[in-house]
TrEMBL record:
Protein name per UniProt: Crp/Fnr family transcriptional regulator
Annotated organism of origin: Plebeiibacterium marinum
Domain Cyclic nucleotide-binding, first and last residues per copy: 15-119
CDD domains, per the entry: CAP_ED
Pfam families: cNMP_binding
Length: 193
């Protein structure tokens, strides 16, 4: 697997904020490259999430295990996306979530203290994260609304439209959990298509 590419991170930051070459250099040096093998844990429930991760290549999921031992997939993130437990990361409280690699993955990580420094030093980066967090909040609301008011078929179709590659990279068991349905229901939906 290739080495994590800081240029991908800079490309996505520059989509929403203008960075000088000096800013880019500071950002590059602040992120540490990490490689994680498939099925390896990045975070275990009960740990504090010390890092925010940018996925340069790979696929990960965050999930919660309820009192009956049932897994509930909260996030599935692939190339050029962020993953972490934002609540634990900023509050420094233990996470309720686990994060696991679904593929061998290259990541760039940054600790909370260093990110806070960069947000003060580089206004463009603060703008980027403000927009990123706004989009994440809106996506979370949309997902909650979809779970409450849309049919499983509608949620499946939306996922297929937004992320068609996810069906080649993620098991149907994890996708069903993410969609809030059983694997059997997901199989029936796929057969109807």
């Amino acid at each position: 697997m290739e080495k994590p590419d800081n240029n991908k991170l800079l490309y996505y930051i520059n989509k929403w904020a203008h960075l000088s070459k000096e800013d880019e250099s500071v950002i590059k040096s602040a992120f540490e490259p990490v490689f994680i093998k498939k099925k390896q844990d990045l975070l275990v429930s009960g740990q504090v999430c010390d890092f925010l991760y940018f996925i340069t290549q790979g696929c990960l999921r965050s999930f919660y295990i309820d009192s009956k031992g049932v897994e509930h997939v909260y996030q599935i993130r692939m190339d050029n996306n962020w993953i972490g437990d934002i609540d634990s990361y900023f509050t420094r409280l233990p996470s309720k979530y686990n994060i696991e690699a679904l593929e061998d993955s290259n990541l760039l990580r940054i600790p909370v203290g260093r990110l806070e420094q960069l947000l003060v030093e580089i206004p463009g980066l603060e703008r980027y994260f403000r927009i990123l967090f706004q989009k994440a909040y809106i996506n979370a609301l949309n997902r909650l609304n979809a779970t409450m008011w849309e049919t499983a078929m509608d949620r499946y179709n939306e996922m297929l439209k937004e992320h068609p590659e996810i069906f080649q990279r993620v098991s149907l068991v994890h996708l069903a959990s993410y969609l809030g349905i059983t694997p059997e229901s997901l199989s029936r939906i796929r057969k109807q298509k």
